[in-house]
Specification:
heterodimer, A: about 525 residues, mainly alpha, two-stranded antiparallel ribbon, about 5% strand, B: alpha/beta, Alkaline Phosphatase, subunit A, 8-stranded mixed beta sheet, about 10% strand, disordered N terminus
Chain lengths: ~525, ~450
């Protein structure tokens, strides 16, 4: 047996020198949705890399059939303070309970008094106050501090990235922007594990903040060439002479089309990887920087993706996914699943798809319709992600970010920001097991620091009744709504504890311990874990 | 030890500590302990502690005299009679089987892997197929193989391989080529044979539950650390017992939605586990382990088995990730070494404790990687991968031959020569002694390799 010859490892593959080819610019025409259920012709410049044959067809061909008209036809331009609800929206009463649920699913729960204020806007006004914020977000309340009382250094200090975002969740006046950023962090899950600097991760989260209500195609393109994503899925190591399929696969499977739906083949992935070739960066002491497109490293040949051939580039790669007939249903179901735990009925889903496609893949109109759906207000509850529960608790308790414990507590509860478990993000069906439930319990214990009472001080009320004890504990939590059976159980506990008082000296300390037990139990009650 | 997170900030944050520090901060000093005052946690002796002490693990339960002999203790008694345990170790991300068992004798290997191919002679040769050679970092596994304690699957997978991490991993977790199952194959086994009261019967040592042991009915558990499981609060006995009673009630009240039942289930299992593992603390090992977090978990697991905790199925994730699209050599080397050395120490520990005949380890990954390397000194997703069944009772014979690199499948990936569901059927029937027909759909259609010594 011959010993195989080892080729020397080259630091970087040799670049092929290539003469810059001529490009034939050609005006093409195509049908695009006009947003009114009909189609209009759009012209665009097509860059041929080979001279087009005489008589080359430039479109747009026969007019496609009219689409089903989007029910809402896009939201009205100005926020309406009154409540003219769309016909298929939730029609029930919009009081504090509904406002709380909206703030919980589209934000991080109410701060004291906020639910009543939001309820006064009515359903449409309340939803639009979240989906149409103006200007930059204002963070109100004490600035975040680390364990030593110093300001955060999110780009430099361990865990401060997590605290920085958590603080935004707690203090922002644009909660849906933060919630959408969290959703997109899960959707396009990128982990610090394979990214050079925390600053690149933070920049990606800012990208999510700035584009969370706009065009999904624009967002998709921005994410595709985002430095953190280029590193995470090897987009920066995808060369014409050696394509890397990592991003090509996940952009279809996880970001835009979904697995096991027959949307694409392995060949589509390989061709798409070629379309995405050409991104590179430099390497310095801090890792990867200076990300840019290198035309020489891009495969300029023809690629066939989803049966469509052309000299596709990275922008086309995103467009081809978004134009795929199975994309709108993927988008609508995925976005819906972050807000409502039961799948939409077929008719509802189709209407949302029509809104989405008809608006030119705008996120906001779909989001507004979802936030007005009756399923959100009347349907079953869902488990809060751990950071959502923590931010909700801190808002209720009026506590600023003042400890680094939240970093490892959130990690133990299963959600360290900027470190999703893998590229498919966090699994919303598996937030709770014995390990993560324990972490949530301990998180509550930490959150109650400074609010729990000292059982050994002499001044705890020795006459406090079970009802008073529960009222006091609920007030500390800003009066969350509890299911009656939970309230009853807490009262029972308060009564049982009182029966344990046998000696005079126990009257105060045991009542103080009871208060702490009630505070802890409210924090871990299903009412605060669910949203 | 390389713990993955910073635990230093929580040292001393125990129940009694909290209580004491609260008092100390108030300028009053530590509270005196006098008759009738709440007893700081950790001072009581109990029946369970007595049970456990003989085996070298400090296992204590507070106020145990009030707790009736539970299913947990019945489980300890049963486990002591020699129930078998299956430990499943997962290489996350699709490990490159052509590195673990490198086909250095295959002439195409160095052509497909100009940069990544292992040179002949770098690692121990694989006795059952002279063309294959162990990765040097898998030397510990090679040692066990030499002792006849490793059954290797050099090309395991399934027909029409799916190259999505998540789909393929899901197939392995549920033991069926379907998407959307809610229970794992070992979860269904636990549903069939498990106890209604014992969450330890299916245990993930990863801080989150492996979908593989997700059950429909029976309780299962995940723990973040083998060093202990307690719930902190500023509440102490006797009020603490009342608090946990209410917490358990939150777990047992009726539910009207899936979300609520999820919370209830978690609350009730958490409370049970809290009681079962109360006081599990320091343990000692008869052999030395590498100083890594993964090895520490295995050392704890061996101690748990020795003390008789009633486990049937345990899952652990191998350290690191194996989705090596770029710069494969270095990552794979260090992670594989850490894993294999940990497993060797675990096996030696079990042998020293006389428990090796009760434990079988199964190692798997969602797929192998493409034989042809990519341009980033890495490899893309492939099809057939490798799996290993390890233990003193393992048959120690290769299952399915290495298919060679001269003919690949339609996607240029390694061809499959054994089906993972066949491995599952054999483990169920030969090791766990349970009818695979009830667990693996279409079980009758899979050949059962002999995995367990007679």
């Amino acid at each position: 047996m011959a010993i195989p010859q080892q080729k020397p490892v080259e630091a970087r593959p040799q670049q092929r020198r290539r003469k810059r080819r001529r490009v034939w610019k050609d005006k093409h025409y195509r049908w695009v949705p006009d947003g009114q259920g009909d189609w209009r012709v759009q012209s665009y410049l097509f860059r041929h890399h080979h001279k087009p044959k005489r008589g080359h067809f430039r479109g747009p061909g026969p007019k496609p059939a009219r689409q089903p008209r989007a029910p809402a036809g896009g939201p009205p331009p100005a926020p309406a303070a009154s409540d003219p609800r769309p016909p298929d929206a939730y029609q029930g009463g919009f009081g504090e309970a509904q406002a709380t649920r909206l703030l919980q699913r589209a934000g991080f729960g109410p701060a004291p008094g906020q639910a009543a204020q939001l309820a006064s806007l009515g359903l449409v006004g309340a939803v639009q106050s979240l989906t149409r914020p103006s200007g930059t977000a204002v963070l109100s309340g004490p600035a975040p501090r680390d364990d030593d009382g110093n300001p955060l250094a999110p780009a430099d200090a361990w865990g401060h990235d997590h605290l920085w975002w958590l603080d935004r969740m707690v203090r922002t006046d644009q909660p849906l922007v933060e919630r959408m950023a969290l959703i997109l962090h899960d959707w396009f899950a990128t982990s610090q594990a394979n990214v050079s600097t925390a600053q690149q991760m933070i920049a990606q989260s800012n990208l999510f903040r700035s584009r969370c209500f706009g065009s999904f195609l624009d967002l998709f393109r921005a994410v595709t060439v985002d430095p953190a994503m280029l590193q995470w899925l090897n987009g920066n190591e995808n060369y014409e002479w050696a394509p890397n399929e990592n991003y090509a696969r996940e952009m279809m499977e996880l970001f835009s089309l979904g697995a096991d739906r027959g949307a694409y083949t392995e060949d589509d992935i390989r061709e798409q990887a070629r379309a995405l070739t050409g991104w590179r960066n430099d390497w310095g002491d801090a890792g990867a920087y200076n990300f840019r497109f290198e035309p020489k490293w891009h495969d300029t040949g023809s690629k066939t993706v989803f049966g469509r051939s052309g000299n596709w580039g990275w922008e086309d790669a995103c467009r081809l996914c978004v134009e795929h007939p199975l994309h709108p249903s993927f988008f609508v179901e995925k976005l819906w699943s972050y807000f409502i735990p039961v799948a939409p009925a077929a008719g509802v889903r189709e209407a949302l798809e029509a809104t989405y496609a008809g608006s030119g893949w705008q996120i906001r109109p779909v989001l507004e319709q979802i936030l007005m759906r009756p399923e959100l207000y009347e349907g079953p509850p869902m488990v809060k992600p751990p950071v959502v529960q923590l931010a909700t608790m801190l808002r209720r308790l009026g506590r600023p970010i003042d400890t680094e414990a939240w970093v490892w507590l959130c990690e133990e509860a299963g959600q360290r920001l900027f470190w999703p478990p893998n590229v498919s993000g966090w699994d919303d069906n598996r937030w709770l097991d014995t390990s993560r439930m324990r972490a949530r319990w301990n998180m509550v214990a930490y959150a109650l620091e400074g609010i729990s009472v000292d059982p050994w001080s002499d001044d705890y009320d020795e006459e406090e009744t079970p009802e008073e004890a529960l009222a006091r504990a609920l007030a500390s939590w800003s009066l969350p709504a509890l299911r009656p059976e939970h309230r009853e159980e807490l009262l029972e506990m308060a009564r049982r504890s009182e029966n344990l008082i046998l000696a005079n000296w126990q009257k105060g300390p045991y009542r103080a311990l009871r208060q702490n037990a009630l505070l802890q139990l409210i924090g871990v009650s299903p009412d605060l874990i669910l949203q | 030890m390389s713990a993955p997170r910073n635990h230093s900030c929580c040292s001393g944050y125990t129940r009694s500590q909290l209580l004491r520090s609260a008092a100390a901060e108030a300028g009053k000093g530590l509270p005196a302990i006098e008759p009738g005052m709440p007893e700081p946690a950790g001072t009581g002796l109990s029946r369970r502690k007595f049970l456990a002490r003989g085996a070298g693990l400090a296992l204590a339960v507070y106020g145990a005299s009030k707790i009736p002999l539970s299913a947990f203790e019945t489980g300890i008694a049963q486990a002591a009679q020699g129930d078998k345990i299956l430990v499943s170790i997962f290489f996350d991300g699709g490990i490159d089987s052509l590195s673990v068992l490198a086909p250095v004798g295959d002439p195409r290997y160095s052509q497909l892997r100009p940069n990544l191919a292992l040179p002949p002679g770098a690692g121990a040769s694989f006795a059952e197929d002279p063309n294959l050679q162990w990765h040097p970092a898998a030397a510990a596994l090679a040692t066990l193989h030499g002792e006849g304690k490793v059954s290797a699957f050099p090309a395991i997978g399934y027909d029409h391989p799916d190259q999505s991490h998540f789909t393929s991993r899901h197939y392995y977790e549920i033991g069926e080529l379907q998407v959307g199952y809610r229970t794992g194959w070992l979860g269904r086994y636990l549903d069939a044979v498990g106890d209604d009261e014992n969450p330890l019967q299916g245990l993930s040592l990863d801080g989150s539950l492996s979908p593989m042991i997700a059950t429909a009915e029976k309780p299962v558990a995940a723990i973040d650390s083998v060093d202990g499981y307690d719930l902190w609060s500023r509440v102490d006995a006797p009020i603490e017992d009342e608090m946990f009673r209410s917490f358990a009630r939150f777990g047992s009240l009726p539910s009207d939605s899936p979300g609520l039942s999820q919370v209830r289930r978690a609350a009730s299992q958490t409370d049970k586990l809290r009681q079962d593992l109360a006081g599990v603390g320091d343990f000692s090992s008869p052999v030395s382990y590498p100083d890594t977090w993964f090895s520490h978990k295995l050392a704890g697991l061996a101690a748990y088995i020795a003390v008789g905790l009633p486990m049937r199925v345990v899952t652990v994730r191998a350290p690191g990730g194996y989705d090596t699209h770029a710069d494969q050599a270095g990552d794979l080397e260090s992670n594989l070494r850490e894993t294999c050395e940990g497993i060797l120490a675990f096996q030696r520990d079990l042998e020293a404790r006389g428990l090796a005949d009760r434990v079988m380890v199964e190692m798997w990954s969602e797929f192998g990687r493409r034989p042809e390397e990519n341009g980033s000194l890495g490899t893309d997703h492939g099809a057939a991968g490798c799996a290993f069944v390890i233990g003193s009772k393992a048959k120690g014979e290769m299952v399915g031959e290495f298919p060679g690199l001269s003919s690949l499948d339609a996607d240029d990936n390694l061809r499959v020569t054994s089906d993972f569901r066949g491995m599952y059927c054999s483990l169920l029937e030969q090791w766990l002694e349970f009818d695979a027909e009830a667990i693996i759909p279409g079980a009758a259609g899979f050949a059962r390799p002999a995995l367990v010594k007679a």
